[in-house]
Design goal:
Layout (H helix, E strand, L loop, with lengths): L4 E9 L5 E16 L6 H13 L2 E3 L11 E6 L11 E6 L2 E6 L2 H16 L2 E2 L7 E2 L12 E4 L6 E4 L3 H6 L14 H4 L2 H4 L7 E4 L2 E7 L4 H17 L5 E3 L12 H4 L9 H18 L4 E6 L16 E6 L17 H16 L4 E4 L13 H13 L4 E6 L3 H15 L6 H12 L4 H17 L5 H4 L2 H13 L7 H28 L3 H19 L10 H26 L16 E4 L3 E2 L28 H4 L5 E4 L17 E11 L3 E9 L3 E5 L2 E6 L11 E7 L2 E11 L8 E7 L9
Parallel strand pairs: 2-3, 2-4, 4-6, 10-17, 13-14, 14-15, 15-16, 16-17
Antiparallel strand pairs: 1-2, 5-6, 5-9, 7-8, 11-12, 18-20, 18-21, 19-21, 21-26, 22-25, 22-27, 23-24, 23-26
Helix pairs in contact: 1-2, 6-8, 10-11, 11-16, 12-13, 13-15, 15-16, 16-17, 17-18
Length: about 750
């Protein structure tokens, strides 16, 4: 192989953004393609750019001499392109031939080739996240082989499409699942004339989910998918997943198909099987995919899914755990998920996992790469065909997580510490020590705390330690690129800190303060959005939508308070707050409730109208029991709304206080799930609303009390996994002043 050598002066930009001029030989090379023109444009563009940075001159192949090496990209179908076992091969003879039998395979091979031989990589989106080429980069002189990743992945992280392509995103088996029932049977089109097409809820048809026992609904679904595959012949699969949330049909025909408490998977799989079998009569290779989610996460008990039905099992953060690996035997939540996944893999030939590598409600730090490493190995072991991850872009709070997840889904098998070291070494060469320590503190703390307890990772001492590490980065004379990337990390910590502040203010009953904090964090998001070439700290559109929802909620609740007590906005009421911090608490009691007749349609934590432990009188309501002193500090906050445990117990809190005069006022109470208030031995309020159903953070209970001693008992639905329960109680007089009961 002969190269034509020309000396040139090249400006090279390193990972930190600084430029150095080096003298290096220029070598000529031509790039051709067979059958892939326009198929992988990003990969071809990056191939040219990397070669040029390495000192190669790209010339047209038709103008090149025989001695000029050729890089040929060949898309050569060898067998069924839907097979997940495709191979990409790179050979070296008189040139380089990169061959694959699929577009994704060819794309993956190009990036594997650039990484292995030239050190060209794209760590995070944008040019600030690029690295390479190596100083000694050259065309290889021996044959190389690359296998496609075992996990066939569709990654959905915000709008970083270019980055996903560079990470080797697989698209040939594009398994995308959406909530589509209303697209197929639209309430606007059908409900008024055919209410029987929709779910029966408490004896009334509602335009929520569809009734899967209705023959006309089945016919509409069949026609839809026959039409869909006729119009989209290149797609191998379509979504058949229900609408989000619950609200499934309670008619006798649907309920008769349920086989176990809290799960409706059997009825859904029966419906899905009927649809796919009719579709396969015309399109035998097409498939339908659905989320195994909420009360249809568990596999069916009796019915076997059709071979062309694909479950995408949802590893949801609120039901399962990401602090620990799925294989962690000490993690109760993931033991259940592991069992669910194993059973799906036994009955379905093709199973995917829906992941949440950027938790879509918690926009703060989410350090879970240690779990992703172990999980990706487990997925391969049991034959999971792919991972689809949901996330906003989340690069500030979890950039290394998304980078590492992308690597693991692309077949990487190195320990997570090595991936973090490479991530930091590439992006933060000056601040390498501090950023590495910052990330490892988060990862190791998260791995070692209780299931889903991010609040235990973000306690004040740890947050101070994290800020100190980032402040140290300012002493380095970093290049502008590295300085901007350090700002990205700081932005992630800032967002986390402000989210904690919102939760702390809610715990203190400070609705006005919570409102101000949400406005402040929305302003911060505006600041992050403008003028940065680094990736976003959060995906602006989704983040602002969720935060605006909280802003509106807190504003209404604040104004409700003002109206109730005739307090003006200018007066505010932060100075009037005195939440009860010192309590006497009981041990937890088992949450006794009466199961409904027949098979429960919803999981225990969501069963409608059940008789809960709130209705049952435990010893604390009848006799003196052992009470233990507990205290809620000023900095108390809980993330149980975002990382909730199922409430599995009942706990009592008691406060004895004395009034020097009569009181006409209100009890102000906030509890995550159900609660009951007993004042001087008499029940004065009960709420069975669960966190999913609550419209307001706080409730007001009007009271009139005489002077003297009084006993307030709060009975709450609790979780045995939580040391302290998440609630707030204050007693206000009729002017809106909270009594200083502590």
């Amino acid at each position: 192989m002969t190269f034509i050598l020309v000396l040139l002066i090249a400006d090279m930009t390193n990972a930190s953004g600084s430029k150095t001029s080096i003298v290096k030989p220029q070598k000529e090379v031509c790039i051709s393609n067979t059958g892939c023109e326009g198929k992988i444009p990003q990969a071809q563009s990056d191939l040219r750019a990397c070669l040029e940075k390495a000192g190669y001159k790209i010339i047209p192949c038709e103008n090149s001499a025989n001695s000029v090496p050729k890089i040929e990209l060949t898309l050569k179908p060898v067998r069924d392109t839907l097979s997940p076992a495709e191979i990409s091969i790179i050979t070296a003879h008189d040139g380089i031939n990169i061959v694959s039998n699929s577009e994704s395979g060819l794309n993956s091979a190009v990036y594997a080739y650039l990484n292995t031989n030239f050190g060209c990589q794209w760590i995070i989106p944008g040019e600030l996240g690029s690295a390479g080429p190596k100083k000694d980069a050259h065309l290889p002189a021996k044959e190389q082989k690359y296998e496609l990743p075992y996990l066939i992945a569709v990654q959905q992280w915000g709008q970083s499409e270019q980055w996903h392509t560079r990470m080797g995103k697989i698209t040939d088996r594009k398994i995308e699942v959406f909530h589509v029932w209303h697209k197929i049977v639209s309430p606007d089109k059908y409900f008024s004339a055919h209410p029987d097409f929709f779910a029966l809820i408490k004896s009334e048809r509602k335009p929520y989910q569809v009734c899967t026992s209705n023959k006309h609904v089945k016919d509409i679904f069949i026609r839809y998918y026959l039409d869909y595959f006729e119009k989209n012949p290149g797609l191998c699969a379509a979504s058949i997943s229900p609408e989000d949330r619950f609200n499934f049909c309670e008619c006798s025909l649907c309920r008769a198909l349920d086989k176990t408490n809290g799960s409706i998977t059997d009825r859904l799989v029966i419906f899905f099987n009927e649809i796919i079998r009719e579709v396969n009569k015309k399109y035998p290779d097409k498939k339908l995919a659905f989320y195994a989610y909420l009360n249809y996460t568990d596999p069916p008990v009796e019915i076997v899914p059709d071979k062309n039905l694909i479950p995408v099992v949802c590893h949801t953060p609120w039901e399962f755990c990401h602090n620990h690996a799925i294989t962690d035997t000490g993690c109760t939540a993931n033991r259940r998920f592991k069992d669910i996944l194993r059973r799906w893999a036994q009955i379905s030939p093709e199973v995917y996992v829906r992941e949440y590598y950027g938790h879509f409600l918690w926009y703060g730090l989410w350090p879970i790469l240690h779990s992703i490493e172990e999980d990706s190995r487990y997925f391969r072991r049991i034959g999971i065909k792919g991972v689809i991850s949901e996330s906003h872009e989340h690069w500030g709070p979890a950039g290394w997580v998304l980078y590492g997840a992308g690597r693991y889904l692309a077949g990487e098998d190195k320990p997570y510490e090595e991936l973090i070291a490479h991530y930091c070494d590439t992006l933060y060469p000056q601040a390498l020590k501090e950023i590495s320590e910052y990330i490892l503190i988060l990862e190791r703390n998260t791995r070692n705390v209780a299931c889903r307890r991010m609040d235990l990772v973000l306690y004040p001492e740890n947050m101070e330690k994290l800020y100190t590490l980032l402040d140290k980065c300012d002493v380095y004379k970093t290049a502008p690129a590295e300085k901007e990337l350090i700002g990205l990390v700081k932005g992630g910590l800032q967002v986390t800190d402000m989210l904690i502040k919102i939760k702390q203010r809610i715990s203190a009953g400070d609705l006005a303060g919570a409102y101000d904090s949400v406005v402040e964090i929305l302003d911060l998001a505006d600041k992050f959005r403008s003028g940065n070439s680094a990736p976003p700290v959060v995906k602006y559109s989704l983040f602002t939508e969720v935060m605006a929802m909280f802003r509106d909620k807190y504003e209404k609740e604040r104004d409700y308070f003002y109206d109730k007590f005739n307090v003006s906005v200018n007066e505010h009421f932060r100075g009037r707050l005195n939440p009860i911090k010192h309590w006497l608490a009981t041990d937890r009691y088992a949450d006794i409730y009466q199961r409904p007749q027949g098979i429960a349609m919803y999981p225990d934590f969501y069963e409608r109208g059940r008789s809960m432990g709130l209705d049952f009188e435990y010893p604390a309501e009848k006799t003196e029991v052992r009470w233990e002193k507990v205290r809620y500090g000023d900095g108390f906050f809980s993330l149980s709304e975002y990382f909730p445990y199922r409430c599995d117990s009942i706990r009592y809190y008691k406060k004895v206080f004395t009034l020097n005069t009569k009181l006409k006022g209100s009890i102000f109470v906030r509890a995550i799930d159900g609660y009951k208030i007993i004042l001087d031995g008499k029940p004065v309020a009960i709420s069975k609303e669960r966190r999913f159903d609550k419209k307001r953070s706080f409730d007001f209970v009007d009271i009139e009390l005489s002077e003297g001693e009084h006993t307030l008992i709060l009975k709450v639905e609790s979780s045995s996994a939580m040391e302290l329960d998440d609630f707030t109680v204050m007693i206000f007089d009729n002017t809106g002043r909270a009594l200083p009961l502590d």
